[in-house]
Amino acid sequence: MTQNLMTPIKVNAITAMAMTMAFALTCQAQTQTPEKSPEPSVDRMPVKDARVLMVMALQAPDGQAHGTLTGESADAISQRFKANTPISIDVTTDKRYRQPGCSRLKVTFWQDGVWLPGAQAPRKQSIEFGINYCLDGMPPKSLQ
Fold this sequence. Notes:
single chain, disordered N terminus
């Protein structure tokens, strides 16, 4: 299935934020490329919504969760950047707050084989952001 980029698609707020940031960075030619990818032996859960991984990271003893974005959002991003590799998502806990089930999370979306405008070859591209998040989907009441 191909999707015209002008056709609206339904995305959640987290994915929309990542897509917006990725497009903005691409347009400004300010890109971030990590030095190395996470170990290939990491088990990645297919998800249509990054929030699933955020909740898993909040509940995990090591504060981490790893997945692969699927569905319309993944298809639109891959089509836009002419990439045919999976979009990986890594969520790690930066800080746990006193409020149970709440943490500062680092969320990283990355994909190999991304063609940027004006580039001579495809490359690995990533976007990373931090978010204060709780199991109920809301931000913590306090950052302590």
